[in-house]
Amino acid sequence: MSGVVFIASLVVSLALVHRPLGDYMYRVYSGTRHSAVERVVYRLIGVRPDAEQTWGGYARAVLAFSAVSVLALYGLQRLQDRLFLSLGMGPVPDHIAWNTAISFVTNTNWQSYSGESTMGHLTQMAGLAVQNFVSAAAGMSVAIALVRGFARGRTDLLGNFWVDLVRGTIRILLPIAFVGALTLVAGGVVQNFAGPQELTTLTGGAQDVTGGPVASQEIIKELGTNGGGFYNANAAHPFENPTSWTNWIEIFAILLIPFSLPRAFGRMVGQVRQGHAITAIMAVMALTSVTLTGVFELSAGGTVPQAIGAALEGKEVRLGVADSAAFAAATTLTSTGAVNSFHDSYTPLGGMMTMVDMMLGEVAPGGAGSGLYGMLVLAVITVFVAGLMVGRTPEYLGKRIGPREIKLAGAYFLVMPILVLVGTALAMASPEQRASMLNSGPHGLSEVLYGFVSTSNNNGSAFAGLTVNTPWYDVVFGLCMVIGRFLPIILVLGLAGSLATQSAVPESAGTLPTHRPQFVGMVIGVTVILVALTFLPSLALGPLAEGLS
Amino acid sequence: MIRMTRLPGRLTRQVPTAVRTLVVLTLILGGLYPLAVTGVAQAFFHDRASGSIVRENGKNVGSALIGQLFTDRNGNPVRKYFQSRPSAAGDGYDPLSTSARNLGPEDVVDSPGRPSLLTQVCARSKAVGELEGVSGARPYCTADGVGAVLKVFPAVGPVARAVSVNQPCPVRPFLSTYQGVKVECASPDGDYATGRTVPVRGDVRAVVPPDAVAASGSGLDPHISVAYAELQAPRVARERGLAPAVVEALIREHTMGRALGFMGEPAVNVLELNLALDRALGKER
């Protein structure tokens, strides 16, 4: 029952905080004044902060920044042995470096490497952690650009990506991360620049206690819904997540920005209740998932959990089964992918829930920014479906959803399922790739399916039994992450550009109200039906076959 | 539908800005920020920021947050110490290769060179039972400490043949008959992949607690449950010639309760408990 209180305390805290933070984010992205620090930054990077971009310019800026980031991060990993703080680690092998560079730039943080034996401190803090900030800020920028598309009329300008990026980083992520990092240190998360420290244990064995700037990276990995652990064991590692209350803080940090952005959205479109409706959709789906995951894990279904007497395999004693399940749901409902317990050893149905969370498209509440734009696309699809039923031209927030808009929204929805299903089919068709599965039977399929769902959705968690540091998986998962991140972003910005040029349609008797429970229910219904139609067959062969046999 | 044709040319025009932005933000986020956090953390929380190192007689003996093996050179438990959970980090509690076992909930059939998760659980349960002088029996486990799993043929329809797959011949199968069919032991070169997998629950109740047989996520779990500590208490007290009440009191002292009364689970820190025992022994002499 303490698990119920745990979840309730998170819900209450988020309910209290999302409003002031959402209002703050609204002011950050709508403000016209630049702080002194920001003016210096704009001068250094050569940007005129008041010059706005069209959707194309905005998209090119996102893509250029991301491409440069991938190359820089790749280079940093390949050259880490020649720079300082490498801890004697050699250059990261090329296919792992490419996969990791893409992984962190796309906000995925899929890890085909083991942190403590691959990455030096400089690579972690000046490479990986920097992308934790900016990939999250980039996602938030794209979401804000889409919201501007709804909020503005008769313009082709969506804002300035560089300004949105710098503001999101410096005014939102950095202050919260600084306070959060110190809070985690108070709980026992390490923050130093030491290498492994060898000591002799009580029984005379040798143990190397690792160090590193962990707290500063841990907090932004959760806050930015990134998820890449400093260590291989991620947030199960006692140096990343030492106590049951740091666990609470980390889950809170994961959900904080995704649940606050709908408030900022409501403020920006001038109708706070539209933001409430989006929050409600996210909250209903999230609570359902958190509850189901918790129930499945606590009931310990499956042969091994029954033999053990609890679903404790791959979980830490201090965190317990219930709170570990809450973390698992939070990390997969967002695009985080950090883990405090290992999903591969979850009960068949508990493990399935983590996959279903991601298959929803990570919209409940989704990643920092990507959750909001994903949800708004679903809202567009829903008003279209509703419009078909009553035979009227659909509109959302005063903007007509015409052929161009619905084509963009439909294409957005299709990207991820195509990557997942085609990718899984390719892997399963090849004996060589099947050999990477640690488990056999339906669970082996689940490992591969999970990998494609996770990378294509930019989540980054894994059924970690799958051996993925092979060239094939590194390259293919890398492609899934790139396409799964940037194709939807281009489509969203295209949609934003198209919406911004329209002038607002006045509300009429035939307008579908999009702030009532009816609409909340419709979006949930459309989402669940679309996702079930897409993924039920593959789930039936994997976790369902395992859980129901 | 979307004019993408001119994208590549215009993309390159943004590259210099992108490079400069990345450099400036890297200096702030990858330099100033971690340095500032480290500075404040080391000033106010020096011990924690440095890894919560535990010192004994002037020597570092571990971290309060990182579990240890309490075994001898041959991997056998040192009987005067409380034992940690199973660990998949390297050869056990190796912070340089943290890991979970990552085996699934239906991983019940052993293969050559790799015991199934079920068999690993059963074997550990049996070993713990023997060490503590209690029953190591568990549901789905045989008395000899492997997974109680049959492969039944044909996969569909009435049973014609049943093999106890985790018990290689000449081991006697844990069940003599299954649905009227005699159960065979597994022949070393037999391929039973096509059979239906039937785990057999049995009707025992486990005495050895769950965390004693399940590996942690990190492989470094510094804690055990209160139940597992209490199971070990009589043996530790006996080995050290201490009154059971003394050991029980030390367990209570080193139990971390739920934070705020509702977060996580109560947990006993094994390294700190064992250190406290060593100190208690020192005082009695």
Protein traits:
heterodimer, A: 549 residues, mainly alpha, two-stranded antiparallel sheet, 19 helices, 4 strands, 66% helix, B: 285 residues, alpha+beta, five-stranded mixed β-sheet, three-stranded antiparallel β-sheet, 6 helices, 34% helix, flat, disordered N terminus
* Sheet with most strands of chain B: 5 strands, mixed
Low-confidence stretches of chain A: none
Beta-strand percentage range of chain A = under 5%
Total number of distinct structural domains of chain A: 1
Strand tally of chain B is 10
Strand-residue fraction of chain B? 5-15%
What is the structural class of chain A?
Answer: mainly alpha
Oligomer: heterodimer
Radius of gyration of chain A: 22 Å
Report, as a whole number of angstroms, the end-to-end distance of chain B: 87 Å
Record the strand order, biggest sheet of chain B.
Answer: 5-6-4-3-7
> Residue share in helices of chain B?
25-40%
- Tell me the number of helical segments of chain B per DSSP (H or I, 4 or more residues long): 6
The domain tally of chain B reads 2
Say how many strands of chain A there are.
4
- Helical percent range of chain A? 55-70%
Largest interface: A-B, 130 and 117 residues
Name the shape of chain A in a single word: globular
Secondary-structure-derived class of chain B: alpha+beta
Summarize, please.
The complex is a heterodimer of chains A (549) and B (285). Chain A is mainly alpha-helical and 549 residues long. Chain A has 19 helices and four strands.
